[in-house]
Amino acid sequence: MDRSDYMEMKSNIKGSYTQKVQIGWYDDGLVCSECEKLFGTYDKYASELLLQNEQNHLKLTHEDKLIGWRIEDVNFQKLKMFFLTILWRAGASDKFQFSKIQLGIWNKRIEKCIRDGSTEGVEGISFIIARFPDENGKSSILNPHKEPKGGIFSSLNMYRFYLGAGFIIYIKIDNRPFPEQYSCLASSEGGPLVILCRQELLESAEGALMKKILLACQR
């Protein structure tokens, strides 16, 4: 398998080990092979868009500092379907990596969208993409989790996924809109895809958490 076809997943649970998994994360016992073929269409598109065509990502700078990337040619339908399949697979899986993903009433809506190949009925689901720019950030990830209430997204129902290769996906599952300061970063039909540049991993909150995990594992 070519490196562009997988993202490295590391657990932030002590005693769990790194595993290489296809983009979108794979659970052998979750769905039938025919369903995985359907998912594979969206997984492949996301891999091509975010990884294999990385040379087409236009760098965005402010005062000579990298603040993000922009991708002009985006199939929003396929990209959103990719994130819907991630949500559904995570919510339906019993693996520990996904234990904090609880979709509730959205589970059936997402499943219907996947079966129909349509994003109709889940207009409340939208996403923001960010990325660590450094090699440490591109080689390490944490388990997906729900954003805390009162955090950067206020009271919205939000989930954070680490897809590997430095990508972080903030997925809103809420009919309320993003706070105004984040609305320009949310991907939408007909517009370019903007990827926010995070600070380097070791300077981030995730980096501090990983240091704690490393120290705990060394005891």
Explain what you see.
The chain is α+β, with helices and mostly antiparallel strands and 219 residues long. The protein has helices spanning 33-52, 76-92, 106-116, 135-139, 180-183, 205-217, and strands at 6-9, 19-22, 58-62, 65-71, 125-131, 145-146, 158-164, 167-173, 193-197. It has one domain (3-217). 32% of the residues lie in helices and 22% in strands. The strands form two sheets. The protein has a seven-stranded mixed beta sheet with strand order 3-4-9-5-8-7-6. A two-stranded antiparallel sheet has the order 1-2. β3 (58-62) and β4 form a beta hairpin.
> Mind telling me the C-alpha Rg?
17 Å
Structural class: alpha+beta
SSE ordering: EEHEEHHEHEEEHEH
List how many beta strands DSSP finds.
9
Number of spatially distinct domains: 1
Q: Note the beta-strand portion.
A: 15-25%
How do the strands line up in the largest sheet?
A: 3-4-9-5-8-7-6
The general outline is globular
End-to-end CA span: 35 Å
For the sheet with most strands, the description reads: 7 strands, mixed
How would you state the average pLDDT, rounded?
A: 78
* Total helical elements: 6
Unreliable spans are 1-25
Helix content: 25-40%
Summarize the structure.
The protein is α+β, with helices and mostly antiparallel strands and 219 residues long. The protein contains six helices and nine strands.
